[in-house]
Design a protein that fits this description.
- This protein is of the alpha/beta class.
- The chain has 17 helices and 12 strands.
- Helix 14 crosses helix 17.
- The N and C termini lie far apart (60 Å).
- The structure holds pyridoxal-5'-phosphate.
- Pyridoxal-5'-phosphate (PLP) binds next to helix 5 and helix 6.
Length: 409
């Protein structure tokens, strides 16, 4: 029934729209079907086998029960796999479920994890607080420094987990370099590519074993559905589906899958617009007298701009900045006076978002860094960072909105 099954011969815009999507054979509906059913009527062949469903047999039964898989979520999984150049993909209820599902699947007591010292706060808290309770050893290192990664690896290192660009300081990790080090030590590499999206970076092509996304961000793109995904090799994904979907139950709602599928159709053109506006705002901020420092991988002032040019085909729409004056008073003024930006957490939406992250508070709660690691964070973040997600509004309106609060400060 599908007229085309987009391959890598097709361009990224064509694949973002058509990959994974199936025309409904009974109605001919062109848009993906939203299938809410939690159970599926089984064929006589399946009936004859009885109820036992193993990892091996689960793959040849189309649908059984929605915790195993769902036809709407499946179309989304095939679309993400296509864009990431992956054999397969599994979706989750949130990005955190994807991250923790992957770690709980791969790690057991006695194993060692190497993780970016700066990462999404939920991940930072989980690896520092929850994994050690289960007997997993964790080393947080500056993964921007490959020598630090090399010296952190141990004979029992099972997984290296990096986030690039890292939230909120926009630190990059050299994925190809990390993959070589991890594999030489017998470990796997997983990359949280939420800030980059498959439009900017293809971690699997650079040697990573798994690529993870919070679909809540750019892939959905409209701030109205939460989801997560992990893509990689088919055999790894089947085992992950049994652990995370079937046993942890971290399944994506079909309705959210349907919203995210629709959002992804425009991912390539949205990312081009996010990047263009972010560059405009980043240059405006860098020239503003109230601003101390701007962190954006697309600016020549970014300490890893060379790596950004090599590893990112799009610099994305995320930037952070420090101001010279009282940041707490500025945060208050922004929440009160900004007209276009919403003062809110999250990112990757069509609406621009800004939020202040107090360095001491975030470090105490999440990163728990000290010594040289804390000094690195303080050099990037100072008293605190304003983390900005540039949406799809007119860049001039965004600059004028920021000027209205910065000029007064
Ligand atoms: C938001 C985010 C997550 C967590 O995703 P949720 O969908 O909010 O659970 C993980 N990693 C990064 C980089 C994120 O920005």
């Amino acid at each position: 029934m599908p007229r085309m099954s987009p391959t890598h011969k097709h361009g990224i815009r064509t694949r973002a729209i058509h990959a994974g999507e199936k025309i409904d054979p009974t109605s001919g509906a062109a848009a993906p079907n939203l299938v809410m059913s939690s159970t599926f009527v089984l064929s006589p062949d399946v009936a004859e086998r009885g109820f036992g469903v193993s990892v091996e047999s689960a793959s040849d039964i189309p649908y059984l029960y929605a915790r195993w898989g769902n036809p709407t979520a499946r179309q989304l999984e095939e679309k993400i796999a296509n864009l990431e150049g992956a054999e397969d993909c599994l979706t989750f209820g949130t990005g955190m479920a994807a991250a923790t599902g992957l770690m709980l699947h791969l790690l057991q007591a006695g194993d060692h994890l190497v993780v970016s010292e700066i990462s999404y706060v939920g991940v930072a808290e989980f690896v520092r607080n929850n994994l050690p309770r289960m007997g997993v050893q964790v080393t947080a290192v500056d993964t921007a420094d490959l020598d630090a990664v090399r010296s952190a690896l141990r004979p029992n290192t099972k997984l290296v987990y990096v986030e690039t660009p890292a939230n909120p300081v926009m630190r990059l990790t050299d994925i190809a370099g990390c993959a070589r080090l991890a594999h030489a030590a017998g470990a796997l590499l997983a990359v949280d590519s939420t800030f980059a999206t498959p439009i900017a970076t293809l971690p699997l092509a650079l040697g990573a074993d798994f690529v993870m996304h919070s679909l809540t961000k750019y892939l959905c793109g409209h701030g109205d559905a939460m989801g997560g995904s992990v893509a990689g090799r088919a055999k790894d994904l089947l085992a992950l589906r049994m652990d995370s979907g079937v046993h942890l139950g971290a399944t994506l709602s079909p309705f959210n899958a349907w919203l995210i599928l629709r959002g992804m159709d425009t991912l390539p053109i949205r990312m081009a617009a996010h990047e263009q506006a972010a560059l405009h705002v980043a240059r405006f901020l860098e020239a503003h007298p109230a601003v101390k420092r701007v962190l954006y991988p697309g600016l020549p002032s970014h300490p890893q701009h060379a790596l950004a040019k090599q590893q990112m085909q799009n610099f994305s729409g995320m930037l952070s900045f420090q101001i010279k004056g009282d940041a707490l008073a500025m945060a208050r003024r922004m929440a009160r006076d900004l007209k276009v930006f919403h003062y809110a957490v999250s990112l990757g939406h069509q609406r621009s978002l800004i939020v202040f992250l107090n360095t001491a508070e975030v470090n105490k709660q999440s990163f728990q860094l000290d010594g040289a690691a804390l000094a690195r964070l303080q050099a990037e973040a100072g008293q605190g960072l304003f983390r900005v997600s540039i949406g799809l509004e007119d860049a001039e309106d965004l600059c004028a909105d920021l000027a209205s609060v910065l000029d007064a400060g």
